[in-house]
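Anyone able to model this chain together with cytidine-5'-monophosphate?
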Amino acid sequence: MTVSADTVSESDTIPVPELEQKATACAKRLRAAERVLVASHIDADGLTSAAIAVQALKRADIQCEAVFANQLDAGEIKRIAASKYDTVLFTDFGSGQLDIIDPYVRNGDFEAVIADHHQPAMTHDDNPAFSLQYHLNPLLVGIDGASQLSGAGASYILAQALESDTTETDNRDLAALAVVGAVGDMQSSTDGLTGANAAIVEQGIAAGVIEETTDILIYGRQTRPLPKLLEYANDVQIPGITNNESGVAAFLDDIDIPIRSDGEWRRWIDLTMDERQTVVSGLLNRAIASGVPAEQVNDLVGTTYTLTAEAPGTELRDVSEFSTLLNATARYNRADVGLAVCLGNRDAALIEARHLLQTHRQNLSEGLQWVTAEGTTTESNVQWFDAGGRIRETIVGIIAGMAVGAEGIRDDLPILAFAEKSETKLKVSARGPQRLVRNGLDLSTVMQEAASAVGGEGGGHDIAAGATIPINERSTFLEIVDKTVGEQL
Ligand code: C5P
Ligand code: C5P
Ligand code: C5P
Ligand code: ZN
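re: yes, here you go
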């Protein structure tokens, strides 16, 4: 394993030919609109999806405005219908709500165009009276929407179809945002992005906005002081390093890596290639010596993506830090700030986003501490915790994902996290291990069915899904989930 700055070869392939046709139809319909309402989801993928759509529409001279929602439920769609836009472009949601959107389209309330990657609620085959025609979703052409294409990726493919030959628009620069969205939805693994996502990366590289390198896979390469980077690394736990301030200091001293330069903290990006190699080798030796399993050791180095147009040392330069910055805005009702950053505001919006990031980080860290201290309750086939009002419902899913594999939390069982959404509603977030998904686990179906059975609603992806249920239905819901997961496996 070596840390290198080699970029992959340039290429200019079309992301997904199968999706191109659908994208062309969607683009044609959008061009016919006078103005478009872009409605999107309040997370990193949703924000980047909207930002890509807004820029592509503007470049095609189509007026638009963006709105965001936490969950696209019946009430939200009704509000959108009341907004008097004739054409609505749904990004990063919409497929899971086809059944609610379609009657509006049939009724002529608005025309819907959808660019999404969630499990569709129904198909043309289920319902012959189905009116909605403009639907771009990787799952419709056999591409996995949980790992091969994100909402931002779907939006990017639409942006490509919106390019105009006459004005020679080139939307490939928007690949940078598409990669932030995919990484924000956890679609990247040690080997980086794959499938349709990888094709988008190649376009971004060709356009000169993305660099793909092999580097240490620890969160915070651009902005964290080196000792904090190692101390806070929670993806790979290394005894004597993880959460051990003095251990980190001794380790860096031991391998002769200065932690300051001209009185300033050095960050990972300030290290020379040789120094990075020294740190990586040192960490690998430590990990192996303390018995960290080989597959976890291997996850310490992998494919990373850098946005080359962004200033070095900022959150925006690293796609992973960028996506966290966006979650810090949208999941706290400040999607406007995140969108402005995506659209290029590097002044007031970025300052505000950084401010929100402090709170988000604090909340993630406190939430994770609470979950690991509290532990989970284990049923036959799932484990769960109920954070009540302690964790914000918009980030309980991120915390559930981070908790898996942390001290005392099993990584071989799906995890369900509950948090209060309101006085009457409970939010559920579910995350499943990759191995179980390969063996038939589909949390999207589980959430959808179990939520329906108790008068709630749910959906998502096979590996990560969620639901909203009445607050007093937790135990019935859990019973159904436990049983359904058992049947799937
Ligand atoms: O609504 P949306 O599709 O954006 O949400 C995806 C969620 O699923 C993200 O919070 C992401 O963390 C989670 N996910 C995951 N593991 C994956 C894919 C997605 O935890 N492999
Ligand atoms: O917030 P977001 O879902 O984008 O975070 C993605 C991943 O980045 C988390 O699963 C976590 O491992 C890491 N992270 C972190 N420290 C933070 C924020 C995020 O380690 N302060
Ligand atoms: O909120 P969380 O990150 O747990 O969401 C995981 C996935 O489940 C997301 O893709 C989200 O869009 C989906 N979800 C859903 N219906 C809900 C709640 C979440 O489809 N009521
Ligand atoms: Zn998404």
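Residues 324 and 449 are 31 Å apart (CA to CA).
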